[in-house]
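Its record is quoted verbatim for completeness.
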Amino acid sequence: MKKIFYSLFMAVASVAFISCSSNDPEPDPNPTPGPGEDDPIEIPADAINSFYVLNRGSNTKDSQVDGTLSYYTYSPSEGKLLSTALTAFKDVNDYSLGNNPNAMAVYDKYLWVVINESNRIEVIDMETKKSVKQISFSEEKYGSPRQIWIDEDKAYITFVSDNTENSAAGGYIAQYNCKTYEMIQYFPVGSKANKPDGIVVVGEYVYCADNYGIKIEDGFEDGNLVVRWLKNSDWTSANNGLEQIIIKGGLTPTDIVTNGTEVFVICSGVDASNTRKKNSTVYKITGYEGNAFCEGTLMKVDKKYLYVINAPKNAVTPITYKRYSVIDNNDVTNMLAEGEGVDYPTSLAIDEWTGDIIIGSATKVGGYVSETTNGYFNLYSSDGKKLLKGETGIDPFDILFRPVK
């Protein structure tokens, strides 16, 4: 494989590195054991499940609405919605969640919510919904947090902008202590055009999708890279284990998911000028390459299945809901029962305890997807039958199941 160079501007000094050659061994991320058959799960009749929906709000020319955090409880055995709090965060705090919240993660009993354009993270007590900590990035070199992954006692956060002027860096990746809320280390990634997006931890490694405008003259096709490095290394050191994974034929990697063994990344197919050049596609990472797996715009993975929704924006191609076995490549089934889809899917979540599926959706008004109207969710059983429907805020962008109590 041709050697390709990729520059990362470190906090102390610029570090250039070379990816693997054809003689290099494939990476070993020290994953957890592969998926197997799980024991049947009995759901107690009195079990109460709950989940959060993070709504991005509206940023259209005529409508500026802050994002919201919604909270729901339901009975898995009865398929019945028990409670709804559309504005759960604002109901118990004296201020709005903020502008354009993007992602959530759980640490202990706390929910970490990433709020992109408000340039902060809210740490929220999941029981009371009260904010216990605000982490603001207005005074930091990096800003506009995008995605988050929590592993052990550390939060890994991607930032898509630089708070300083005239910097060669585009986005940043930072590591925070979840107990003290202090930044441990960070480094800038690429040039001004490059933006780190989805991030996951697999074994001893951090994987990050690096999207937008990677320059051809630097040795890359436009936006086809996932970077990975040792999570416990000194990130400013040349020995941090930093490597690159080429997404073959991909364009603009965004979301990335893992079940601890398999790693998948979505390439949106839209270039830095917001021009669609390719269909949104899911790629499976093997070794130092990512190869096309299926077309898709949303995905989640558990121990047995990769769940993929493909919702092309051409308003002509039908929306599909597929479930791919991560054990048997020939095992592909429909995620939902016939005719049980949504207007326009914006988020997806799988409850690994019950197998329940939740799909968040925008609402159609006059036949068109509305960017200013509250959305909704459908909750389905593991065999794809719709159990219930509920209202959300505008643009339900992320969904997170809370552990059953």
Summary: Confidence is low (pLDDT under 50) at residues 1-25, 29-37, 213-222. The longest strand covers residues 142-151. The radius of gyration is 21 Å.
